[in-house]
Specification:
The chain is of the alpha+beta class. It is 38% helix and 18% strand. It contains seven helices and five strands.
Length: 176
């Protein structure tokens, strides 16, 4: 069965940020995971079942840092990649916060394609680590909506705050 559909192709320019840190991968990974805790899914279910109001849900599920990020998903692909012939420690995360995501979702549900943010950490051959993440506003600007773009800039700020909390420098593209 063929469904009627129309097509829209939107080129999305993106700025990828890479920070190389002179710190061991395990140290940076532990710091990241301590600074960005996993989403408390049990608490989320409790709040939804109890009919919690938005303000309570956002307040109780926000991360503890100034950035408010929580981890929605974590993957440690190193064991699989090792079998594939690349023994480089790596970790991948989806991080975000419900408040900022909801502000964008109201204007275009498609923004969930870019929120939560995907962050990747990996070890370098010299014993350091690299943090890679796409600049949120560079992707979210493609929606052509000022409210979404403003939320993208807010995510830029939050991401910069997170990196500084980890002891890393705020990248130049995240300075406003």
């Amino acid at each position: 069965m063929a469904l009627p559909a129309s097509e829209r192709i939107v080129p999305v320019p993106v700025i990828r940020i890479e920070l190389e840190a002179a710190v061991a991968f395990g140290t940076l990974r532990r710091a990241f995971e301590a600074e960005v805790p996993p989403l408390d899914v049990a608490r989320l279910r409790e709040l939804l079942s109890a009919g919690a109001e938005w303000r309570q849900l956002v307040s109780e599920l926000a991360g503890p840092g100034i950035h408010r990020f929580v981890r929605f998903w974590t993957d440690h692909p190193t064991p699989v990649m090792r079998i594939g012939g690349a023994d480089i420690p790596s970790a991948v995360y989806l991080i975000g916060d419900y408040a900022t995501a909801a502000r964008m979702f109201r204007h275009d549900p498609g923004t969930l394609l870019y929120t939560p943010l995907r962050v990747e950490l990996h070890a370098t051959r010299s014993g350091g680590s690299i943090v890679s993440v796409d600049q949120p506003s560079s992707r979210l600007g493609s929606f052509g909506n000022n409210k979404v773009a403003q939320a993208g800039f807010e995510l830029d700020r939050m991401l910069g705050d997170l990196l500084e909390e980890l002891g890393l420098p705020r990248p130049s593209v995240l300075r406003r």
